[in-house]
Amino acid sequence: MGNRPRRVVAMGEAVLEDGLEFKGNKCSQNAKKDISHFENVEIEIWFDKHYFVREQHGDELGKRLGIEMNFVKDLVIKSIKHLCYYSLKVGNFSFLNFSDTGRFFRILLKDYYSDKLPLNVIAEFHFVSLGKYEVTIKTAMREEDFRVHDGQYIVEIFNEETSTLSKSQMKVIKEICHFTN
User: Fold this and answer.
1) Cβ neighbours around 156 below 10 Å, total
2) How far does the chain reach from its first CA to its final CA, in angstroms?
3) Are 54 and 47 in contact (CB under 8 A)?
4) Model confidence over 94-143: pLDDT tens digits?
5) Helices then strands, each counted (H, E), the chain
6) Containing H/E element for 126?
7) Is the four-CA dihedral 124, 180, 174, 111 of positive or negative sign?
8) Going along 130-170, which residue ranges are E strands?
């Protein structure tokens, strides 16, 4: 009697959960759910000195508006789930650098959070340990025609639910994958 399935009934609509029931999931039409497991991941956000100089002092035109830390951090945090999705979906794409590779690559994160110029953030993501990663913001600019290096990946975030992964190949930006939740 102690191992009988738990039955749940919600007020209003009658919802009955049977722990022994076999039902459909993404893999099978005849499966039984056992547990849900969540992993915690720590992501440290760092800012390179180059970013601070650009944000605080700007260039000959003055201070760079629209690249303040709160905008940049929001974009990085928003992009994490999209980067993970593309890393799993697109066979040759990985956003993480590992210390033994020797050559580190950077990703362009682009956000259209207003009707003004897009926010472009160059970020470098590193594996520290299982469950711990580090991202360093190298620079940020609000510019329509931001220069992208050959072979560099671009993740354009349109909102929390929509993004596009592209890659610069021989000075042409080619869309690789699109995500809409």
Assistant:
1) 21
2) 43
3) no
4) 999 997 767 789 999 999 876 678 899 999 999 999 999 999 999 999 88
5) 2, 8
6) strand 119-129
7) negative
8) 132-142, 153-159, 162-169
The one-character DSSP state at 32 is -
Cβ distance 162 to 155 under 8 Å? Answer: no
C-alpha to C-alpha distance for 139 and 152, rounded to whole angstroms: 15
Q: Round to whole Å and give the CA distance between 70 and 79.
A: 14
Element (H, E) at 121: strand 119-129
Which residue has tokens 């033994």?
100
Residue 90 per-residue DSSP state:
S
What residue has token string 């580090």? Answer: 134
pTM of the model: 0.81
Closest CA to 52 of 134, 126, 136, 113: 136
**Would you call 78 helix, strand, or coil by DSSP?**
helix
Pairing of strands 153-159, 107-111: parallel
